[in-house]
C-alpha cells in the first residue's frame, strides 16, 4: 500500500525504514529516535526523510469535504489504481509507493462502492509450519500450469480437494489435514500484532463510480476512520469468511518458494475488522 505521513509534530526528524526479513540484523529502538508508540523491530535505515509539510488529519478532513462538494470528478488514471491516485492528487497528498503505512500512523484506502475487490492485509509465515514445507507440498500439493507441485489454496473450514482445512480455536488458527496431521499454526494474538503493525489505523474512503466515453468518473461520498482490532474480531471474521487465508508456495526441487501466507479481505468488509469505526 502507499505511504505518506500525518499527524505527528514537525520537530520529529522522521526517517523511513525498510523492514529486513533476515533476522540477524540488530534491533533498533525507535524510542531513541523519538518516535512515539512504535514497537522495536529489526530495521535497515533507508536514506529518505519526510517533508516538513505533512498533512494532518484535520487538513485531510477539510480537503475531503471540498472534494466531496465537487461532485463527479474524472479519474486521473485508468485502471484499478485510478481511484486512489485521483483521491490523493485532488486532495493534494503526494503519491508515494513505499510499502509502509500511509499518512504516518493512518493508512488511506479508497474503494469503489459495490466493488468486490480484495486487498492483502498482511502476510505472515515466521515459525508457523509444523511440518517441513517441502514435505507438505509433496504430500498435499497439486500441480500448476507449469507442472510444479504447489500449495496454492484459499483456505476455509471445509476440507479442500487436498484434504486441507482451517481449524480455528479460541487462541489459534491452524491448517490441518483430514487425517489429523497439523500442517501450520498461527497464534491469533500474533496475527493481531501483525495486523496492527501493518495497519494501525485506516481511513476508508468510498466513492460511486461510472464510465462515460471510456473514462471513469468518481463521486467521493464517505470517509471513515477505522482503529483497533482484537483476537476475537480476527477469529470471528475468519469464521465468517470476511478474512481469507491464502497458502502460496511451491516446490523448487531442492527448496521451497514461499510467497508468504496472505491474509486478505474484501474492501467492503474492512469496517468489520476494526473495533472503532468513526465517520469523518
Descriptive overview:
- By secondary structure, the protein is of the alpha+beta class.
- The protein has a single domain, classed as PvuII Endonuclease, Chain A (3-Layer(aba) Sandwich), CATH 3.40.210.20.
- It is built from five helices and 17 strands.
- The chain has helices at 57-69, 82-90, 133-140, 188-198, 231-239; strands at 15-19, 27-28, 41-49, 72-74, 107-112, 118-123, 142-143, 149-155, 164-168, 172-177, 182-187, 201-212, 215-227, 243-251, 256-258, 262-266, 276-279.
- The strands form four sheets. Strands 6, 7, 8, 14, 15 and 16 form a six-stranded antiparallel sheet that branches. Strands 4, 5, 12, 13 and 17 form a five-stranded mixed sheet that branches. Strands 1-3-2 form a three-stranded antiparallel sheet, with no helix packed on it.
- It is elongated.
- It starts with 14 loop residues before the first strand and ends with a strand.
Question: Topology of this structure?
Answer:
Layout: E1 15-19, E2 27-28, E3 41-49, H1 57-69, E4 72-74, H2 82-90, E5 107-112, E6 118-123, H3 133-140, E7 142-143, E8 149-155, E9 164-168, E10 172-177, E11 182-187, H4 188-198, E12 201-212, E13 215-227, H5 231-239, E14 243-251, E15 256-258, E16 262-266, E17 276-279
Parallel strand pairs: 5-12
Antiparallel strand pairs: 1-3, 2-3, 4-13, 6-16, 7-8, 8-14, 9-10, 10-11, 12-13, 13-17, 14-15, 14-16
CATH superfamily: MvaI/BcnI restriction endonuclease, catalytic domain
Choose one word for the global shape. Answer: elongated
Distance between the termini: 21 Å
Order of helices and strands: EEEHEHEEHEEEEEHEEHEEEE
Unreliable residue stretches: 1-53, 96-103
Could you estimate the helical fraction of the residues in percent?
10-25%
| Tally of DSSP helical segments | 5
Count all strands and give the number: 17
Largest sheet: 6 strands, antiparallel
Mean pLDDT: 79
What fold name goes in the CATH topology slot?
A: PvuII Endonuclease, Chain A
Rg estimate, integer Å: 21 Å
> What top-tier CATH class fits best?
Alpha Beta
Q: Proportion of β residues?
A: 35-45%
- How many domains comprise the coordinates? 1
The CATH level-2 architecture is identified as 3-Layer(aba) Sandwich
